[in-house]
Each structure stands twice: as C-alpha cells, then as structure tokens.
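Listing 4. Sequential folding, example run.
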Amino acid sequence: MNCKYSCISQLTLSLYLMTQCQLKLRHSVTSLAQTLDYIQGDRRRHPFDATLDQLTLKLAERKISDTYHGMIIHVTNWLKLATNFQSAFSGASVHTVH
C-alpha cells in the first residue's frame, strides 16, 4: 500500500478541523486569514502527488475563501447602499427652524 496516495498527515487533518471549528464558531476574519496562511504553507510542504493531503487542504482553503467571498459581497452591497443614500440626499437642502 502506497501511503502517499491514501494517508493524511496529522497537520493537514488538524488544519482542516481547525478551519471547520473557526467557521462554525464564526471566528474573526483575522483568525481565518491566519489559518489560510497555515494551510497555504502546508500545501507547499507536501508534494503534489500527496493526493489526500492536497485535496483536504484545498477543501479547507476553499471553505475559507467562500466565507471571505460572502463577506466581500456584504461589504460591497453596504457601500453601494451608503453611496446611493448619500447621493440621494446631497442635492436636498436642509432647512433649520429658528
């Protein structure tokens, strides 16, 4: 049995489980970014043909990326709303009562 194709390292499994926990517990973006750095470092450490390690790390990386993508869309929509709100009221005059 060639372990290269069917085994997973302890570090890879730990990073995957850590990613899952952080996402379920809604950790900060900073915490997820640090985990993503660890994942990318571990992916470089494993040879390309360490299939199970590579696929597991790619899955964890993808889960974090999907979470970031959702946050980016949310922030972008909020900024568009704020810009539209500001432009809608920029032409309105403000009357004060004395």
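-- end of first protein; second protein begins --
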Amino acid sequence: MKEVIKVNMKDLPVSKQDTPILDYCRKLIKDGKDPSTILEVYRDSIPDEPSMTVRGIGQGAKLAVNGECRFVPFVPLEGEKLKKLREYTPTIRVRRAE
C-alpha cells in the first residue's frame, strides 16, 4: 500500500516559486521519500476534503508551471540561465471577471 502524506496548505514550507506543492514534492524526494508516495493537500476552509492530490510525489517533482498556467517538465536552472531569469522581471496583468 502506498504511503499517504497529508499536509495543510498553510504548513507547506515557504517557496520562492509560484508552485509550493511541486517544490514540496521535490523536497520530499530529496529527503529520501518513495516517489510513489501520495501527497494530499488540505485547506482550512475544507479540512475534511483534500483540495489537491498528487498521485505520486515523483511525478510532482518532475513538473513545473509555465507562464500560461500549464504543467511542463521541471528543469532546474543553474549558472547563466538562473542569472538571466533573476534579471528578468515579467509584467503581470490581472483581468477581473465582469
């Protein structure tokens, strides 16, 4: 039977990225957890029902989210690529539903 880790969203480690759940999956893998471990994420507003379930933290660790809110393969940035990304500041536009 697969291990299930249950965590409240507010208890996730603070992430510098926009993907704290995927970052947490990478942390769990780095800490030696089994990649097939299931991660259930809860919110205080609905404590009895997971707001998100990751079928396997190994799968979650391999994902990132691009600028179009789509899951893409995770690629760790190092060296010059990381430096260029830190220098780039995107313009964010928020559209509100009318």
